[in-house]
Amino acid sequence: MINSETYTSMHESVSRWLLLICLVAVGIGQSFVFTSLPPIGREIGLADVRISTLITAGAATFVIAAFFWGSIINRIGRVRSVIFGMSSYAVTISATGFVLQEALAGHLSAEQTYVFVFTLRIIFSMGIAGILPSIQTFLIAHTDIKHRSATIAMIGAAFSIGMILGPAFASLLSNLGLTVPFYIIACLAGCAAILVACFVKDGKHVRQFQKPPRINWLKQPVMPFLGMSTLAILSVTGIQQIMSFLIQDRFQLDVAETTHQLGFVMMTMSCFSILVQMILVPRFRLGVVTLISAGVILGVSSQLAFIFWHSMVGVFVAMALFGAGFGFLFPGIVTAQTLLVKDDQQSRLASMNASMQGLGAALGPVIMASLYQLEQWVPFMALIIGLLFLCVVFAYCKAKFGAAFKTS
């Protein structure tokens, strides 16, 4: 017979894994769209610029919507927010697939398709913007503070796994039809929403029906770490953006060879990031100081490898170091944030952090690609300066708020 303590432990474990699966699904949805929209858009007659605006509109909406989700989570609850976000995800992805299917069949013009998909992308981004903050807040509330960095690392790893699986889904399932992957991924998201509704309960959440006091984030001690989040995500999306340029220019490859090598390079970065976040951080229960220090050291080392090691092996080593560095840096930054605010502010903090990360994701490709146009080494040197500045800011924050970080 299972006693109540064992049952509670099993239930929390099931809830934890279901929520992490939701994050995997969100990662799949994000990267899948990046892979699938461009070729389908061209097929139905959309210009490349218009296709890119669909992705940009979604990213901009995410940044704005995530900022407001904190108060919504406090009001309707963390589990309801996840269910709403995953349901919205399922409906909008399937509707997008249907619109594109109709366009490919000639039943919709390119202009009509653009308007419908643009609208659906905005709704999709508004819905999923609340998923990460809800899950982060839930898992923090149900995790001992000593294991917080491991929990944050698992969140990052789950999303990274989804980002890897997205293009794989697009490639494998597209053999069944260009729009079939949309329906299958929508089904997965819908099933995840149903499972969360059935099995995840949040007995620790107290719904807030009164409007909480406004937070001036600029005056909060957590603000430097929100800026660090922006820099961390900016560096990842920026490196991803310029890597194809670097490989093609440095080794004089054609488009097919560049794409082939790029896939392996990106996989290397993601695998090392996941390895660190899923195994090393939880296994050794690393604290904030260790995580951020290791992340900066590995990050700077990777940029130096990009600058001075000009072989293909050098690129792979640099991406491995960069992925491992991000694997340490991300949970370190987010854990530090959660230690600097009260429990009743965690959902608004998570929403603000998601918004800042979205801002970094939007700015990274533009900034890094612009710097790359100056010289190949310029964006890497800029990241070295950025990481060293991050280290200086963290040293200042550690001197001022160090007591809070000793609990992690």
From TrEMBL:
It comes from the Bacteria. Pfam families: MFS_1. One of its GO terms (molecular function) is transmembrane transporter activity. Residues 15-400 form the Major facilitator superfamily (MFS) profile domain. This is Putative MFS family arabinose efflux permease. It comes from Marinomonas aquiplantarum. The keyword Cytoplasm does not apply. PANTHER family: MEMBRANE PROTEIN, TRANSPORT PROTEIN. InterPro entries: MFS, MFS_dom, MFS_trans_sf. Keywords: Membrane, Transmembrane, Transmembrane helix.
